[in-house]
Amino acid sequence: MSKIVNKLLHQVTQARKLGQQILEISGFNSEGIIYTFATADVLVINCKDYETLWSFEEGQVKLQQTITLLKSSIHTILIEKSGNPLYSW
After folding, report:
1. For residue 50, how far is the Cα from the chain centroid?
2. How far is residue 15's CA from residue 39's CA, in Å, rounded to a whole number?
3. Residue 75, C-beta contacts closer than 8 angstroms, at least 6 positions apart
4. What is the domain count for the chain?
5. How far apart (Å, rounded) are the C-alpha atoms in residues 13 and 87?
């Protein structure tokens, strides 16, 4: 594999790990989540169903507190359902 491909794979892996870490620390489980990842600016959570989606809407304070605790530069949380953006704050 080329160095560029390896670097991209590493970045994707790190983004997924950070997203998962934020969810775990916030007290959310991965049931009902298709994927999550975090970049320097955005946390993206893609939900399978509306029940899961609503749990994040209700728990947005927990997510923001965790982002602050981790001293992350994330300033946007994007909640999706089946890949379609529904909420952003």
Report:
1. 17
2. 6
3. 41, 42
4. 1
5. 24
Q: At what angle do helices 60-69 and 3-26 cross, to 10 degrees?
A: 120
pLDDT digits (tens, 9 = 90+) for 60-85: 899 999 999 999 999 999 999 988 99
Count of other CB atoms within 10 angstroms of residue 53:
20
Domain range for residue 82? 3-88
Q: Are 83 and 74 in contact (CB under 8 A)?
A: no
Q: Is the pTM of this model over 0.85?
A: yes
Work out the number of other CB atoms within 10 angstroms of the CB of residue 31. 7
Tokens of 85: 């953006």
- Rounded-to-integer distance, Cα 66 and Cα 87, Å: 19
